[in-house]
Amino acid sequence: MSSQKLEISRRIFISVLTFLGISSFAFSQGLLTFEKSKLKIITSRGENIFDVELAVTERQQSQGLMFRRSMAANAGMLFDYGTLKQIQMWMKNTYIPLDMIFIDSNGKVTNIVERTIPESLIIISSRGRARAVLELNSGTASRLGIKEGDRVVHSIFR
Predict the structure, then answer these.
(1) 154 and 40 in contact (C-beta within 8 Å)?
(2) Within this chain, do residues 77 and 140 fall inside the same structural domain, yes or no?
(3) Are residues 19 and 56 in the same domain?
(4) Which of 22, 62, 89, 155 maximizes the CB count within 10 A of its CB?
(5) Are residues 104 and 128 in the same domain?
(6) Is 119:138 a contact under the CB 8 Å cutoff?
(7) CA 122 – CA 153 distance, rounded (Å)
């Protein structure tokens, strides 16, 4: 067999092993599924509708968007903590760069952290107390003009 064919075979073999390693890790971790719902953000530019997954249990919140390689443009994940609190998150095992939108109990955006760094261990915090965090694809807040004070409409908010 030629060295070029051996190199191609080696790369395919490594790719398969990598895929199986990730798949078996995900399986062994018992990755969770999430209930889905619609969410609307009202900005000075208009209304934007998203299909969001809800992270409401501690296990769901711990997993979040970890191990995913992509997310639809109009998708996101809403972390509902139930009460106002100082929220801290990180990007460990999260491969998608995200915008994190912190929201109070009334659905008001309190602060936004844009373009988070995948797999970073840097702590990302709410500025003050928040009830929820909405994670969207990186750049979405800027692209849609989402700002502090904008309103998020979802059944978890008053």
Answers:
(1) yes
(2) yes
(3) no
(4) 89
(5) yes
(6) no
(7) 29
89 close to 59: Cβ distance less than 8 angstroms? no
Across-strand partners of 80? 132
Of 64, 62, 36, 61, the C-alpha closest to 50 is 36
pLDDT digits (tens, 9 = 90+) for 1-57: 665 655 555 555 444 444 444 444 444 457 888 999 999 999 999 999 999 999 999
Q: Say which residues have a Cβ less than 8 Å from residue 137's Cβ, sequence separation at least 6.
A: 71, 73, 75, 76, 96, 97, 98, 99
Under DSSP, the state recorded for 29 is: H
Residue 37 DSSP label? E
Residues 82 and 12 in one domain: no
* pTM for the predicted model, two decimal places: 0.80
Which residues span the domain enclosing 14?
A: 1-30
Please give the tally of structural domains in the chain: 2
Would you state the structure tokens that stand for residue 126, as one six-digit string?
Answer: 């709410």
Instruction: Look at residue 158 and tell me if it is in a domain.
Output: no
> Is residue 140 in some structural domain?
yes
